[in-house]
Structure formats: C-alpha cells, structure tokens
C-alpha cells in the first residue's frame, strides 16, 4: 500500500517572516518605555520643563494616531514589506538622534520621529500576519503581542542601571539596535520576492505605467470606501480607542491616584510595573482563543469586568486590597490583542487588512489621546479622583456596546474574495 505524502510543515518558508514579526513587536514600545525612568537624570543635560515632560507622555499616542494613519497610503505605494523596513529604520534613526539631543525641543522632535516609525509598525503588523499566516492569525498575533508586552516591561527595568553604568544617552540610544535587527528579516523577504523587487525597481524608475497606477488607485479607493463606510470597522475603532484610553490613562495617573490614597509615589510606580507585566500572559492566550471562537465577545466581557472591578476598587478602597485591584486592572487591557487578531480575521484580503488596521488604530489612538489629558483636567477641576474614575467606568459601557458589534462573525470584502477565487474580476486588489 503506497504511503501518503507528508503534509507540508505549516511554518516552512515562513520562519524568516515570523522572526521579523516578533522582532517588530519587540521594537514597538521601546521608545515609549525607555525614557520615563531617566527623566531626573536627563534634566542635567536636557532642560525639560514640567510641561515638556507632560508633552513627552502625550506624544506617543498622538504619533501612533497620526503616523499610523499615514502607513496605509505609504504601504499602498511602496508595498507592505518595504514600508516596514522604512518604518523600522525611521524609528532607529529617531532613537539615535534623540540620544544625542542637547535641547528639550530637539529631544521632543526626535522622540516624535522615533515614535512615527513605531506608529507605522503598529498598523503594518496585522496585515503582514494576514498575508503570511492566514491560517495562524491567532497564534502569530499572540507571539508578537507577547513581544510587545516585553518591549513595554523590560526597558524600564534596565534603563536606570544602564544609565548609571554608561550614561543616559547610551541608555536611550542603545535600543535603536532592536529596530535595525528587526529590519533584517524584512530585507531578506524583499530580496527573496521577485514581485517585491520588480515593484521597487518600477518605483525607482518612476514608471509603474498608467494602467498599473490606475488599477492600484481604484483598488485602494475601493478598499478605503468599504472600510470607512463599515459599521464593523467603526465599532472596532471605538473598542480599540476606549481600551487604549483606559490603558494610557492608568499609565499616566496610577502613581498619583495611589499617592493621594496615602501609599506614596514610589509604591505607585511598583504597582504600575505590575500593571504592565500582567499584559504578557493575557497577550499569549487571548488572540489564540479569539481565533478559535466564532465571536470573542465573551472574552471582551470578562476583561471589561476586570477593568470595572479594578476601577471600583480604586474608587472605594484604593489603600486596601490594592494587589487585587492592580491584578484586575492589568488584565483589563487584554482586549487589545483580541482586536489586533480581529483585524486579520475580519478582512478577506491583506489589502483590506492594511486599510482596516490604519483606520482602527488611527481613530482609536486619537480617542485614546483624550484620556490622560481629560482625566487630568477633571482632577484639577474637582480636586478628587472620584469623578475621573466614574467617567472611566462609564466609558467601559461604550467599549462593551462597540465590542458587541466588532466581534460579530462578519468578514469585510468576502464577496470580492469569492469572486476572485471563482476567476471573476474583483473590485479590490488582493
């Protein structure tokens, strides 16, 4: 009896891409997390005012919103992989330049450059997972979500010891090496791809041809219209925004909330580290489960419940049972990796995934930017954290309503993808 041919290994030929995806994940939060522990040390060389330090905390979310939105048209023109290489090198350049800055405005400007590359990387990863791992979206999203959590948790732990050993400039600039290393696998992918090389040659010659340009424009316009008119896309954007708003608000104000409760700012900083670290195990599990469920809404409900109990604990008894409130708050943002997985799961083609990722993250981070600023203003107006925490609780209701729509088992562009498989002419470029 003849033996059956062995099934192809599911990862064969894709390990370089997987390495690139994970390394990008390791790079996506370094520019945010590596600076805050060094503020007092940096002030000796870079005269940062309190207002500029506050701006330094707001720049990441604004950069993610602005430059994440720009990633879509750039990727449409250059291609996903070349745009990722450009984003990583942009990020690394910004990190090196800000490490050598001598004035506060220069440090802020180069920080925005570093975060611009990371904002583009945020948007490009989900469609790259869709392109190369359509059969493993949940697993691969979990892999880079864990890497992203590591990039949030590790730099604050080593930044100050490294600054004490080699100076703060080395402590800030050394992370550029991660961005350069992350670009290498994508360069390998481009070199191996005949289509990518041909496309880049056409761009260099500036002669892609009028027919090809018109086709790309029509395809891009069609994808953009479909996504921006979709209630599913808007629901995902609002869910993403409310989840990120809560996360960045906690990062900005948790030490102050606990200090006002009598626990001290230093203790609040340690609880904030726990809040960041708890995202790692949830990032490993949540996207995998989301990929196996028809609707991951029950998971979102569970995580929102964690948010809610954590907020209530801070409202009613912040100095008692603090470890419980912090653990629950740490689990609350786990809706984030679920949404990253849904970008790939709810789109029929990588082209649509690019547009959806840009729209969801652009709108979402723009909403999130209102959180730290708005909550701070509310505290200044009332002199208490009670009203601020009640507002955060109310926004969880908005998150739940939007998430119920976002989790429905609907796929954007599915009729066009079916038409393409049947040999008919689709309206969207694959």
Automatic annotation (TrEMBL):
Q: Does the keyword Transmembrane helix apply?
A: yes
Give every Major facilitator superfamily (MFS) profile domain span. Answer: 13-406
A Pfam family it matches: MFS_1
Organism domain of life: Bacteria
* Cited PROSITE patterns: MFS
What molecular function terms (GO) are annotated for this protein? transmembrane transporter activity
Its membrane topology: Multi-pass membrane protein
- This protein's major location comes to membrane
Keywords of this protein's UniProt record, alphabetized?
Answer: Membrane, Transmembrane, Transmembrane helix
Q: Which SUPFAM superfamilies match?
A: MFS general substrate transporter (SSF103473)
Query: Which stretches are transmembrane?
Result: 49-71, 107-125, 137-160, 172-195, 232-251, 271-290, 297-317, 323-345, 352-379, 385-403
- The keyword Membrane belongs to this UniProt entry's keyword annotation: yes
GO CC entries: plasma membrane
Compartment(s) where it occurs, according to its Swiss-Prot or TrEMBL record: Cell membrane
This protein's name: Putative MFS transporter
Q: Which organism is it from?
A: Cellulomonas gelida
